[in-house]
Structure to design on (299 residues):
């Protein structure tokens, strides 16, 4: 992917996937699990004040084109939860001129000294909201409280090293960036354990009559979710596009859906809503802009 990520696209998608064989189960939060002591040691990397007595518990500024390392963790380990927040884009009491928007802050995650990031996406899109908006989302693996408190519960295992960075690709400062990254140190991780990956794609303008490529993924694994943000310049309903899945070199899709809103588990159009495994975080009154998500949890 190019070093910079351009925005204001006609179609923007974020893909969550685990490229290996792994059974993803979010029932680990089941209260019954507390009756058995689990291996591993809980740890956290946070933006706390290093003095442990002051209140400078954030990155005050990430300037334009600057990258900040949020975490550099030695493995084997599993990141269990990421929480973060930052100042909003509109002018406010912290910044009279406003700050960088969620689609201008790029989250990148590298596993085990790979030169290419396994995760590369604008923070807003990674947490389910496109167009640089701050929107609430209530799903099982990703939750955003009031458009401000960003939470991710996707488990992210690695063997040797995990590095998480945030880059400001906007023209204004990122102001007051707080974060809390929870992980467990593990004695060992099975060799067949996959990495968590998230890929951001976009097209502007999308070619009329051509399929939009959501993802081209190689390897064994689970495709677990999609975030889509679309901007329509036509007064006509665009939602009759069918999702098609070509698996292992197929020339004819072995899975083909019945429409865009159907793929995102809604019917007879789209409505702003938030469910554990699907929803629509935003839809403009004229149907021009919309943002949807779907999360497929493999059990």
């Amino acid at each position: 992917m190019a070093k910079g990520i351009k925005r204001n696209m006609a179609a923007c998608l974020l893909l969550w996937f685990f490229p290996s064989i792994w059974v993803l189960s979010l029932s680990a939060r089941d209260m019954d699990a507390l009756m058995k002591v689990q291996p591993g040691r809980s740890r956290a990397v946070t933006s706390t004040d290093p003095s442990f007595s002051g209140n400078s518990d954030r990155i005050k500024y990430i300037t334009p084109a600057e990258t900040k390392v949020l975490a550099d963790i030695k493995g084997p380990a599993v990141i269990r939860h990421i929480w973060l927040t930052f100042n909003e884009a509109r002018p406010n009491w912290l910044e009279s001129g406003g700050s960088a928007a969620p689609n201008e802050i790029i989250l990148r995650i590298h596993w085990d000294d790979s030169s290419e990031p396994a995760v590369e996406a604008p923070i807003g899109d990674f947490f389910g909201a496109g167009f640089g908006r701050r929107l609430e989302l209530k799903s099982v693996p990703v939750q955003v409280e009031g458009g401000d408190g960003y939470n991710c519960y996707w488990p992210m295992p690695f063997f040797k090293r995990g590095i998480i960075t945030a880059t400001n690709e906007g023209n204004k400062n990122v102001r007051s960036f707080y974060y809390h990254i929870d992980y467990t140190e593990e004695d060992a991780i099975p060799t067949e354990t996959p990495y968590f990956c998230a890929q951001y794609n976009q097209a502007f303008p999308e070619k009329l009559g051509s399929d939009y490529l959501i993802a081209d993924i190689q390897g064994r694994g689970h495709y677990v979710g999609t975030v889509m943000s679309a901007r329509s310049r036509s007064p006509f309903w665009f939602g009759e596009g069918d999702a098609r899945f070509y698996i292992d070199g197929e020339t004819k899709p072995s899975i083909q859906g019945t429409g865009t809103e159907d793929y995102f588990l809604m019917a007879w159009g789209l409505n702003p809503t938030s469910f554990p495994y699907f929803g629509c975080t935003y839809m403009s009154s004229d149907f021009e802009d919309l943002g949807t998500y779907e999360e497929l949890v493999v059990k």
